[in-house]
Amino acid sequence: MASASRSRRKPSGDCIFASRPRPVGTHGKYKEAPDKHVNIIYDRRIVRGNTFGQLVVPTTAQADPAEIQRQQEIKRKAIAIKRAQEQCRAKTPEALQGRKHIDVQTDLYLEELSNIIVATDIESQTDAFLDRPASPLFIPAKLFDFDREVQPVLEVLVGKTIEQSLLEVMEEEELACLMAQQRAFHELRNIHLAEVQHLQEKERRHREEKERRIAQQEEVLEKERETAEKIAARAYTKQDLADLVPAAFTSLRSNGYFDDPVETDVETDFLPWLMDEVNSKLERRFTARQLLDNIIHDVAQKRLEQFKEPET
């Protein structure tokens, strides 16, 4: 027999719910406060310790050690490059004994340097009252003492001139000192460069000598190998081809490959000379015959002209 909480199927095939209905329990809107007071120190939601400390990254979120090492290496290289640039930067040499460095203006016009900031007060005022009379015009005194008035101007001019002259002299001395230090530096650098070139040349000669010795040794070994091969080939030829040379010469001589020296001399030397002589004689004979024909023709032409003259 099935339980009452399970569904039953009617003979018609429909499914019905057979559980007995019961009321739903009522719950409060908020959670009820505990009966006893709870210390918040033991609450797991409260952060304990120094909240300003460094946040501990969990093991799963830590960066790759190789990436950290690469970043540290990049920082060290940047610091080394910056330090090298600072060392290579040209610095002002130390002042001479009894001298000191001062700031020199390089502008076109000199300007007085002072640590006091110049302040200017500006005021605005309305027009004066109308009942106040106009201020009289300022009329300077006609008395003028040239010696007394010119003394401050001369003091300023002379002081500025002397100060500028002293600055120029000190600048020239400093420039001369810098030039001397620069010449000494160039001389020392040239000495170092000459020493470096000497060492490089010495190293080059040693390297070339080593390469030449190696090449000579390889050439000697190559010659020895070629000599051994030639000796072996010569022995093989003498042993296996001793009867080949006489047989080859006999066959060539019987087939007429070796020429008779007398016949060769006649064909190469005598016959060309003979043909040249014959051609030369024939050419002289032809020239003589042509010359004789021209003479005969000229004589016959003159005789013919003489016979024609009486008739005309």
Q: How would you sum up this structure, described in words?
A:
With 312 residues, the chain is mainly alpha-helical. Among the domains are: 157-247; 259-297. Helices cover 57% and strands 1% of the residues. It contains 4 helices and 2 strands; from the N terminus they run ββαααα. It has helices spanning 65-88, 146-240, 244-254, 261-308; strands spanning 8-9, 15-16. The chain has a two-stranded antiparallel ribbon with strand order 1-2. The longest helix is centred in the middle third of the chain and has 95 residues, at 146-240. The radius of gyration is 65 Å and the shape is elongated. 0% of the residues are buried.
Shape estimate: elongated
**Distance between the terminal alpha carbons, to the nearest Å?**
183 Å
Secondary structure class reads mainly alpha
Helix content class? 55-70%
Q: How is the largest sheet built, in terms of strand order? A: 1-2
Main pleated-sheet profile: 2 strands, antiparallel
What count of helical segments does DSSP give?
Answer: 4
How do the helices and strands follow one another from N- to C-terminus? EEHHHH
Poorly predicted sequence stretches spanning 5 or more consecutive residues: 1-13
Averaged pLDDT: 77
Tally of extended strands? 2
Strand content: under 5%
